[in-house]
Amino acid sequence: MYRASLFVLAACGVLASLPAQAADNDLKALREEIAQMRQAYEQRINALEARLIKAESKADSAQTVAQQAAVQQNTVQQAAASTQSNSFNPEVSMILQGSYNNLKQDPNAYQITGFVPTLGEVSPGARGFSLGESELVLSANIDPNWRGTAILALAPEGGVNVENATFESLGLGNGFSFKGGRFFSGIGYMNEQHSHAWDFADAPLAYKAFLGNQLGDDGVQVRWLAPTDLFLEFGAEVGRGRTFPGAGNNKNGVSQGAVFAHMGGDVGISNAWRVGLSWLGSSPKDRSFDDTDSTGTTVSNRFSGKSRTWVADGIWKWSPNGNSTVNNFKLQGEYFKRREDGTLASNSTAGACGGCAAGFETDQSGWYVQGVYQFMPHWRVGLRHDGLKSGTVNIGLINSGMLSFADFPQLAAHDPKRNTAMLDYSPSEFTRFRLQWARDDSGIGATDNQLFLQYIFSLGAHGAHAF
Amino acid sequence: MKRLVFALFSLLSLAAHAELNVFATVPEWGALVKEIGGKHADVFIATGGLQDPHHVEARPSLIARARNADLVVATGAELEVGWLPVILRNSGNPRVQPGQPGNFEAARAVRMLEVPARLDRADGDVHAGGNPHIQTDPRNILKVGEALVARMAQLDAINANEYQANFKHFAERWKAAMAKWEASAAPLRGMRVVTQHKAFPYLYDWLGILEVATLEPKPGVEPAVSYLAQVMNDVTTQKPRMVIRAAWNSPQPTEWFSEHAHIPGVVLPFTVGGSDQARDLFSFFDDTLAQLLRANK
Question: Which of B62, B63, B80, B218 to probe by mutation at the A interface, max A CB count within 10 Å?
């Protein structure tokens, strides 16, 4: 019974311990599982932490990059801003010119016989190497309505000549434009072009004789462009008559004025043309020129009166399909006719004069025609013919017998002529070398053979050229 | 006198009276304005397809046309710097001056390539804003069109809806055409070429063509034969497939190179009107691709 009860007890114990043992096993497994889980979590946390650190460092570097970028952006903005404030500076360009001249006749004795000297520098220039005028060009829009341009010619012997200093409207509307200051007059074709844009090294004789190279007055100009597909432009200008044919009168009001009309268009895509008619009127007072009278004395003659000049001009340009880069041809010509009417005073003591004045009347004309052909890219050849007619020169002092023809050698009857040939090479848009030869019969009995070797360089802002 | 006045008035009445008078500097923008403007836009195109757009004379006829324009459409990026400013200043027309709504520059609407890092004329005729020949990539035509239709709608509000509709129609046709062009141009990808003037960087960018050399020593500078020979020696190892010039370039350098390097010389239209086939924007690209594919055979 006792044994049996022990057995039972033991069995009970076993029975009782059975669930306890089972529970123990479970716990172990659970612990293991938890440990595994912890390990796993720890690994994952570690991994996450690592990633976090990585991400943080990345974020840091990203921030640095962002900051750097921001800094850079600021600099870029500043750079942009500074370029912008820079770009308010005017367009600046400079033209460098010079030449080697070989002249048979003394250029200091140069004259266009039969025509009143124009006071301008019209001689062919110094012998040997010489620097031409260096042109400094500044231009910019002033405000939404106006544009300003200054062209300063730096003379090789020193000094600055204000060639142009103008303000110009940026479109007044209805085709009107307005200009004021000192500018090249709109008469003729070549007058508005600057010397560096000419196709020959010097101006046509007609420009030298009638305008003293080029007409540039102080004054105002208004232009109107007709609303037609045909180019039809009218202009008028008034000024002081600062230069020839004016005499810079000491007088209120207007001493010189001009009106002009231009018409132009295309013929097909390859041809473009323009013609013009201009009238220039001036009332010079005491416009003086020096001459040598019959006694060999240098005397001063003074003209007061009216000067009226008509100019007819025409230009035709051809380029195949409008493409002027390979071949192109340009033909241009102008005709001048001038009447002057007034009194001429002389301080000569020759004959019966001793300081005398009488009527003076001239009717003179001149013309030129020139053709320039680009036969291959960068190379051009050109020919020009100049002719002047001294026409009628009616000097009251001679008619009245006070002085004789010998007292006015400068106005002796002579029809100057000149023939010119040139070859130029422009390796780039900004460079030109020119070889020019001319046989110039401007002075009576002093035929000149002229050889020019010229360079023209333009540096700085890319200027736009008119037709 | 009466007769003169009558003649003058009949001339005045000749001036066209469409809703929008447009002056386009180059044919591609003229063609684009026609697509957008339809019957409401009267388009004058200042240059022909065979003309070098860098060197254009400021002809009197151009000044007369700019005087009546409501909108001047130019490439910009200094392409027209040698002539357009003179025309605008002489036009007496305030509406089309730079900065006004009537002055549109296409180059502002696209991403510019070849923007120079330094500006020096020793590098030739470089443009500060980048290479201005943007029209040789049809994706640029679309971008310019988007900007242009907005500008035309702003200037002519009455017909704005029609402009938008026209452009939408054009853009759909254009995208379809582009897909066609890109598919046909697949053999050109990675092709090496020699170009006379840097006129096609946008085309090459679009089609994945590699330019291994240019015949001009510097942009706008005509090459001498000695220089061409040097270029030929330099690129023989690169095996260029063809030598390409724009229709307005002088033919000799490309002909010389083609003959001596024994590779085809190709003349691309460059713009609308640059070849007999390139009559509008679509046929301009049709012909460009046809020329390239023919030479690549």
Answer: B63
